[in-house]
Amino acid sequence: MARRLFLFALLLLPGSALAQREGLLQIGSPLSDLIRRQATLGTVPQATADALPIPAGEATALLDSIAADPVALAALSPADRQLVERYRSREPASAFGWTPPYGFYGDGVSPVHVEGDGYALELAPIIGASIGPTQRTDRGERDPTAPVYQNTRGFRTAGRLGRLYFEARATENQRRPAVYAYYEAGDTAPRYGFVKDIGDDAYDYFTAEGGVGYRDRFVDVRFARDRNQWGPGAGTLFLSNYAAPYDHLHLGATAGPLRYTMAVARFTTPERDGRGADTVLPSKFAAFHRVSVEFGRFEAEAFEAVVFHDDTLRGNRRGPEIGYLNPVIFYRAVESELGSGDNALIGLGGAVRPVDGVRLYGQVLIDEFVADRFFEDSWVNKWGILAGAHVVDLGLPGLEVRAEYARLRPYLYGHRSTFSAYVHYDDVLGHPVGPNADDLSLFLRYRPTVRATAQVLAARSRRGRDSDSLFVGADPRVSYFERASNASPTFDGVRQTEWLVEGSLAYEVLPRLVVEAAGLYQAVDDAERGLDRAAAVTFGLRWELPFQSVRY
């Protein structure tokens, strides 16, 4: 009887997606990260890992291809070989060496998994529970604070019917972060959409994510509310997973070495303008294209995006622009013929594996530029560059190292108004460091066994921020018509240097149930406000939730 009550209670508990067999992989989940490591090792196509998320069915098909190659399988670290075995296994909790009662963990991965001829269903709780002490300063003065905490409860369900697949995640959350940030006018916080301030530097929020899609050998079509990440790095100039989830229609196609991805999305601008809480927030729309081709150890990618909105000042009510729905069109040409003045961006990127286990990559994004002023500090030179290296299992099996540098010119991602900026809620859709800045990041992850993981992120960012009276292109939500000058050197404005160090030690006690100790240190040295620091250590558990960085 006690066992039955325990199992019933587990079904009522909350969840997200780590390593699953059905549905859509959550970015940062163990299976998603495993695929990214395999792209660097050369056991799966590079392009597969560069347009996330991917369906779980595609991921497990890739693992099947690895398992069918004895040489590739033998080259993996012991932990990765066990992960491949776990996700391909149909044995009850096979990776943990025990047989749970009543069919619980019957597939070795999900708490509840039902499978038949052409269909499958997964059910899992989502839990994120952590608490710990913190210390911080405000304008150099010590700020008395209560403990930081995260309280997440919810559920996840996923499955397939023939070639159709679906994924749904819902959570109720209360959170008190070490570094509090809340935009009262828009009722939002960094990386989240709508949140409610509940006092004591904490907020409450509800999340609902997921989608339904169709996948066959060549095509993947889905409608979802989720995040996306396009590019080979932890950071990307194109489309990152930093902003809150958003509604979008996704089209993916793969043919040999060619991979094409398109998305049409609706974003939110949290500008209530004193109209009260029960008003529909302004929407804007965007369309994205990405195409990549892989030849040998090289991959090349091209990207374009356009952001458009209802221009009520001139009486233009548009909604989704039909011209941008064409999957084989150049947005800039459509924009010019419409006479719209929408916000268009283009980018190029590339990656190379000089040896298996090492991947070098880079991106260039151009928002706007004038050729004869390209080498000047002109405000119209709105571009960004990113370069990185990813090293896996070289010298020490289970060790993963990534280093990245990004530089973003002033006014990048910004436009004529906040309604056409490359922003969702108050978060940039591209690189999280934002414009008028640069960033140097180092990522370390070590997985000595299939259950234990240690990881650290260290980053140094420099930026020129806007002051109360001077706009220098650091905030993409502000119209570039408000610029202080036509001359805009990078780091112009109030200089800031930020240091961020975060990491965790995690141990998986059951499939996708992790106990964890995590730490965070953040210091911001501002030329006007002085040095402020925040530090926190938390202890807790995660079930069906990946580790959540404050930035990536």
UniProtKB/TrEMBL annotation:
Domain of life: Bacteria
Cleaved signal peptide residues: 1-19
Record carries keyword Signal: yes
Key words of the record: Signal
InterPro entries: Wzi_sf
Entry protein name: Capsule assembly Wzi family protein
Organism for this UniProt entry: Rubrivirga marina
Lineage, top ranks: Bacteria, Pseudomonadati, Rhodothermota, Rhodothermia, Rhodothermales
